[in-house]
Give the backbone structure.
Amino acid sequence: MKNALKIAVIAGDGIGKEVVPEGLRVLDAASRKFDLRFDFTHLDWSCETFAKTGKMMPPDGLDQLRGYDAIFLGAVGFPGVPDHVSLWGLLIPIRRAFRQFVNLRPVRLLKGMDTPLKNRTAADIDFMIVRENTEGEYSEIGGRLYRGTDQEIAVQETVFTKQGVDRVLRYAFDLAAKRRKHLTSATKSNGIIHTMPFWDERFAAVAKDYPGIKTDQYHIDILTSHFVRHPDWFDVVVGSNLFGDILSDLGPAIAGGIGIAPSANLDPTRSFPSMFEPVHGSAPDIAGKNIANPIGQIWSAAMMLDHFGEPQAAAAVVAAIEAVTEGGLKTPDLGGKASTSEVGKAIAAAV
Ligand code: GGG
């Protein structure tokens, strides 16, 4: 038997509390099948905690997380706590403190899933979005002046560093090298006059080290159109923090919806724990009804298994998801009637 992998579990808010147990159920099934051991520690860090303590996590929260092999997170945000408070109080500090500079978000039309795009099949929709995850447009630099007056000013600085841009570009090129050898860059260097031309310059410079990779770049506006009209053009797509965030909601929308979308916040150097979470948020409108789709969370668990060096277990979980969707057991967001726990149990059984 292998050593236990220590996983910090933060279910968070809203449907996070419903989909995380299904992710854990499937991880338990995978551990039995593949002789793995997981040691889960549940951390009750959420908007509820904020309401009680004024903080999303304890002051030593990041130090507590440092010793884990990974973090398995559900969703963050709930009415009553402003979204920027909940995000900057939990998710973003974790990504930054643990240098999770890659947010990897697969877009793939799984078996049994419908795409809203006419005449498209699984062969057309299979790409990876690499989102820069620690700088860019998500920056604390800026401020507000003259609040509440007619002269009120809000300023927000975007930060691109050579080190930060190059490392995420290199990750994307390396990933493309293992796939279909094609990398697309999301830019907006016509309108954003300083940071985006810099991003393009670095993309061209790093590309010189990867002569075997075909490259192209599109302004973000037309790129969104191409995702819909030509999803088959893409293999790996790399974008800044904001562009990657937007593209990775659009991508899943063509592959069955945001409820199935997984993500991995990776520190590729493995100096710190990486974090695995569905792309979706806490969805307060459907929270507490046992109808949320657990697939995004379960697929994120598969990405965590991959990160742990267990590709067979990861593939088995994805195959189990596909067996269940192909069998027609689906939550209401996919047009079905199944509950969150029914889908989770079926996927665990299929593993
Ligand atoms: N699954 C985590 C979650 O709640 N995400 C919602 C969200 O708004 N995330 C923002 C981000 O990924 O930057």
Q: What stands out?
A: Residues 198 and 267 are 23 Å apart (CA to CA). The chain has two domains: 1-101+284-351, 115-255. The radius of gyration is 20 Å. DSSP finds eleven helices and twelve strands in the chain.
